[in-house]
Amino acid sequence: MTDQPLLTVEDLVVEYATPRGPFRAVDKVSFRVPQGGSVAIVGESGSGKSTIARALVRLLKPASGRIIFDGTDIAALPERRLRPLRRRIQMVFQDPYGSLDPHLTAQEIVAEPLLLEDGSSRAQRARCAAELIDRVGLSASALQRRPAEFSGGQRQRIGIARALASRPDLLVCDEATSALDVSVQAQVLALLRELQAETGIAYLVIAHNLGVVREISTEVVVMRGGRIVERGPTGGVLASPAEPYTRALRRAALDPTAIRGVKPRHLLSIGTTPEGTPS
């Protein structure tokens, strides 16, 4: 890991149209992700963290601000100029089933991103997909099976393999373990750590639970109501949070061995955004 940031977000603003006018889900948020580093954005539903994730991969277009990826501001790039950079920023979604095409085999799903690479034959794509499936800990028998034939943890491993197919520099994990059982969560987190050690990939981890954050990140950004309320090294923030909101999140956090994947909606009592606003 170097000190040179791979990703720099400056004064990011993201808004949603509502019948009552624009709703500002993210309000002037700034942070950095170093090359090979792991940064987590944490907060409960409605805090704006998943909106940030979607803006970073340009599923949403920011209202204002800058998203500088490896020296290029991608916040307002037209699709034609953005396309070559898309393979370098990939996303793993929360729902390991809904994000996979149910009609394709695991091998076809993982090979999909390779279709965009010039000069790649069908045999080469199939071989690369098989190697990636093996890399995330699935057996060769998984290659010709479809998503419905896998467990949730296995489907999430397929999603990770697909994201890795384009050899990204940054992987955005949007609640990638929250829908999984306890033991499977631990396995996926261990897999992500191993892949980072092997490849030097950088992670931006979106989470609601500080137990997950502790396992995967070195820096943490705490969101509330679309704004950053606290940030710093993960160990320091977890040991001595400065903000009452962060302290409440810490109380709600469970050890990785006991995570249940349930968002702490009871924190609404300490002043979150209204139920139903985008997260």
What report would you give on this structure?
The longest helix has 18 residues, at 182-199. α4 crosses α5 (152-164) and α5 packs parallel to α6 (182-199). The chain has nine helices and ten strands. It starts with a strand and ends in a 27-residue tail after the last helix. Helix content is 32%, strand content 25%. It has helices at 49-56, 79-86, 106-111, 122-135, 152-164, 182-199, 210-216, 234-239, 244-252, and strands at 5-18, 21-34, 38-42, 64-69, 72-73, 89-92, 170-174, 202-207, 219-224, 227-233. The protein has 279 residues and is of the alpha/beta class. The chain has a six-stranded mixed β-sheet with strand order 6-7-8-3-9-10, sandwiched between helices. A four-stranded antiparallel β-sheet has the order 2-1-4-5, with helices on one face. A hairpin with a 2-residue loop joins β9 and β10 (227-233). The protein is globular, with a radius of gyration of 18 Å. The protein has two domains: 1-88 and 172-279, 3-Layer(aba) Sandwich (Rossmann fold); 92-167, no CATH class.
